[in-house]
Structures are given as C-alpha cells and as structure tokens.
C-alpha cells in the first residue's frame, strides 16, 4: 500500500499524513536500537501498521477516547491519536509496562503534539475511563480480557486486533469469561480478525443445549 492509497482509504488530511510520515521515520530510527516491530514489516508500514490500526476508527466512529493496552511501538494507539488530532474531546492513553517503549512513545507524542498520554504501568491497574479499549499483539484472548475487564466495567467497548487464531482463542477464553463478542475480517489482511467485545464478566460461557 502506498501513502496515497492509505490517504484515499482513510480520508486523512495532508497534515495527518505528514505526522504519519514523521512517525514512520522515528520508528525506523528507533527500531535500529530496540525491537519495536519486525524489521521486515517496516517497508509495509502503510498497510501492515498504519491501515491495520486506522481501520478501527470505522468500527467506532463516534468514539473519542481510547486506551491502547500494551501500546508497544504505537499500534494502534499512535496512529489513532494522529488521525483523531484536532477532534474535540479526542484523547488516547498509551499504556505499556516497559519503560523504554514508553520513552519512545513519549518522544512521538511530544514531537507531534498528539492528544495522548503515555502511562508506564500495568494495563489492568489503570483507572482511566474511555469509550474504547484496544490492543494488538499483546496476549492471548483469555489474558487480554483480564487486562481489559476494568475498562469494560467502566463502560468501554473493546476492539482488539487479532490474528487468524482469534476464533480458537475466543473458545478458550469462554472457559473463563462470559462474553458477547463479534468477529470481523481485518481489512489490512484477510487472515487477521477484529474482535469486538460488548459485554464481559468472569465465569465460563454457558453452552447452549440442542
């Protein structure tokens, strides 16, 4: 995917495209000294990282506040913050337990003046209230739901970027969690899945009898 193709898909303003280009440059530089993303994925930045993240906005178009759990290199959180920049009330919390990743995220937030707050700590211990909680490549669904549960209890919806094993992960998670969730195909990779969780509580999913 080219930058122009990304811009066509998202409707991103030229200023936001410039921000994303700076983000790509800083990511490429930082990735030389720390393992943020697989180096082979950087040439495919606009599809594999930027569009993969940006597609979430189409699933929650009214959402203004987001929490990215295990924000890592900034996907999807930094991309969301860039695209939400300038919208009234927009804010993204970038939460990660590794200090060096938080330092990288903070440099991006500062340089691009993003509507975002970087938090160094465990995701499940934070008290922020948001419209949507999200994550990508953080943990199995069972563990991820544990990290996200406090946010859902405060009214958030969960939208997670997962791989092709998402359905199997949901079945495993149902042994521990009772949840209402939808699966949709990722627009950046047909093998990927987006899991939208509407309700969640601890306790195994009851099986329906024929």
- State the CATH superfamily name: Vaccinia Virus protein VP39
Task: Tell me which CATH architecture applies here.
Answer: 3-Layer(aba) Sandwich
Low-confidence stretches: none
- The helical percent reads 25-40%
What is the top-level CATH class? Answer: Alpha Beta
What sort of overall outline do the alpha carbons produce when their principal axes are compared? globular
Beta-strand percentage? 15-25%
Keywords: Cytoplasm, Methyltransferase, rRNA processing, S-adenosyl-L-methionine, Transferase
EC number: 2.1.1.170
GO molecular function: rRNA (guanine-N7-)-methyltransferase activity
Catalytic activity: guanosine(527) in 16S rRNA + S-adenosyl-L-methionine = N(7)-methylguanosine(527) in 16S rRNA + S-adenosyl-L-homocysteine
List the main descriptive attributes of the protein structure presented here:
22% strand, globular, 8 helices, Rossmann fold, 210 residues, 7-stranded mixed β-sheet, single chain, alpha/beta
């Amino acid at each position: 995917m080219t930058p122009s193709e990304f811009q066509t898909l998202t409707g991103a303003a030229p200023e936001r495209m410039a921000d994303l280009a700076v983000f790509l440059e800083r990511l490429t530089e930082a990735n030389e000294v720390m393992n943020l993303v697989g180096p082979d994925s950087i040439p495919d930045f606009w599809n594999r990282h930027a569009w993969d993240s940006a597609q979430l906005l189409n699933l929650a178009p009214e959402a203004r506040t987001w929490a990215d759990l295990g924000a890592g290199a900034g996907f999807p959180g930094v991309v969301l913050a860039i695209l939400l920049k300038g919208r009234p009330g927009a804010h993204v919390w970038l939460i990660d337990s590794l200090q060096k990743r938080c330092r990288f995220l903070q440099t991006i937030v500062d340089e691009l003046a993003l509507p975002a707050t970087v938090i160094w700590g465990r995701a499940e211990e934070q008290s922020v209230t948001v419209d949507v909680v999200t994550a990508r490549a953080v943990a199995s669904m069972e563990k991820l739901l544990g990290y996200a549960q406090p946010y859902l209890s405060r009214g958030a919806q969960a939208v997670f970027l997962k791989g092709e094993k998402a359905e199997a992960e949901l079945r495993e998670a149902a042994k521990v969690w009772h949840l209402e969730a939808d699966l949709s195909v990722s627009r950046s990779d047909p093998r990927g899945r987006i899991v939208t969780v509407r309700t969640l509580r601890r306790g195994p999913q009851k099986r329906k009898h024929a």
